[in-house]
Write a structure and sequence with these properties.
The protein is mainly α. It has 7 helices and 2 strands; from the N terminus they run αββαααααα. It starts with a helix and ends with a helix.
Length: 182
């Protein structure tokens, strides 16, 4: 039953269909969500802008022929790198967000780390082997695939980011943006 007191506390407003709706006032949770979205968006825009600048400089430095070889090697690496992710990103973040036990959280993070490292080693070997079989005479493509693939083994360290994702804060976004440029 609506009393005069509750009507004063929650003023009603009519929408365009004439239905009376309670007026929603922004709460602390709303502004915290807006702030977190701002930090995530700013971090992503900073990384994307940095990637654009670095990519443009690489293209200008290498020229068409060498950049074509680099793009081909990067495509080979990318095909194999997809499998090394194992689809763990969303799964691990949701599992950490839902768990209350610290020991279980550490077990999930440790398992995800080792799975990503082992998968990255296997896919790195497979990518280099494929590049060697497909282009036995092109040492540049094989070397680029090898360098990119070996660097992808560090993907196991993504679990550190998974730890911070359920409760994003500005510090984790600043760390991600700084690591992009190092």
């Amino acid at each position: 039953m609506v009393t005069e007191e509750t009507a004063i506390e929650t003023p009603l407003r009519a929408n365009r269909f004439g239905v009376q709706l309670p007026r929603v006032s922004p709460s602390h949770g709303f502004w915290e969500t807006v702030r977190n979205i701002g930090w995530v968006s700013a971090g992503r825009l900073l990384r994307m802008g940095g990637s654009l600048v670095v990519g443009t400089m690489v293209v200008r430095y290498l020229g068409p022929t060498q950049y074509g070889a680099f793009s081909y090697a990067f495509a080979i690496y990318g095909l194999f790198n997809i499998a090394s992710n194992l689809g763990l990103d969303v799964l691990v973040v949701s599992e950490i967000a839902l768990t209350e036990d610290v020991a279980e959280e550490e077990a999930v993070l440790g398992t995800a780390f080792w799975l990503k490292v082992i998968a990255s080693v296997i896919t790195s070997l497979a990518a280099v082997l494929f590049a060697w079989i497909a282009h036995p005479g092109d040492k540049a493509v094989i070397a680029i695939v090898a360098m990119l693939s070996v660097a992808s083994i560090a993907q196991g360290l993504d679990v550190v980011d998974f730890f911070f994702q359920p409760g994003r804060d500005p510090d984790s976004q600043c760390c991600r943006s700084c690591s992009c440029f190092s």
